[in-house]
């Protein structure tokens, strides 16, 4: 199999121009990943961290790793509130992804985001429970998705419309199971600067791609950049996409994690970048839900002329 069978391979050069609504050339999405990591599990196998560790030397999974666990918990206790203040000040909505355990264990984070009218995507049960663990086990994967939807609905009073897999790991069945469960879109793939339509056994599903390069893990946790270097990476990516968008609209997602971008030194890069892109009048800051609704109605005008 050279490519998945639930979407066609269509190079960007073979598509009709994409024209965002309202005369916008560019879409910029800020995604805050509000994740939860259990401290241990009942086996010696190291607990999958669901993200880079701050302190090396992996411990057995049944031994509490207070160093790495509390490093991540900084995002819950401090970092996420700093990010919320930045987006409040900027007047820009965000897409918040939540593990079901975030809703159950840290409901303050989820309800505050919801009170602001921000978008909240389902993001697995916990950050350590990746969907690829259920490869070739569709019944188990279906049960996990149903449990996540139930936890989401119990806190927010509605079902989630969008999905982002933790660690971006999904199975071949995930799109089919998400559509079956009532989802409208997913954001797990890394393969485009534009949304596209996927076909599942239960109907169409919009893919709104994520980015692992334009991401605070890439610039800080893995790249060890200063805030100035992070800002330059974000700005340079935006500049090229904005230049290209005169021919056909482009989309840029910036992935944020409260324990990384929520640090004092790191948030400066975010503040700079928000100020930079707000200087452009033709940049749209939508929720993914808005993109999904618009693209579901207009994707036919964007598909290949062939």
Residue stretches low in confidence (pLDDT < 50, at least 5 long) are none
Assess the beta-strand content as a share of residues.
Answer: 5-15%
Amino-to-carboxy terminus distance: 23 Å
CATH fold-level label: TIM Barrel
CATH class equals Alpha Beta
CATH superfamily: Glycoside hydrolase/deacetylase
Radius of gyration of CA atoms, rounded to a whole number: 19 Å
**Total domain count:** 1
Q: Number of DSSP helices?
A: 9
**How would you state the average pLDDT, rounded?**
93
Count of individual beta strands = 9
Biggest sheet descriptor: 5 strands, parallel
Structural class: alpha/beta
Portion of residues within helices: 25-40%
Please tell me what the overall shape is: globular
Query: How do the SSEs run, as a string of H and E?
Result: EHEHHEHEHEEEHHEHEH
Q: What is the architecture at the second tier of CATH?
A: Alpha-Beta Barrel
Description:
- With 306 residues, this protein is α/β, with parallel strands linked by helices.
- It has one domain (29-44, 61-301): Alpha-Beta Barrel (TIM Barrel), CATH 3.20.20.370.
- Helix content is 38%, strand content 13%.
- Strands 1, 2, 3, 8 and 9 form a 5-stranded parallel sheet that branches. It has a 4-stranded mixed sheet with strand order 4-5-7-6.
- Helix 1 (66-90) links the parallel strand 1 and strand 2.
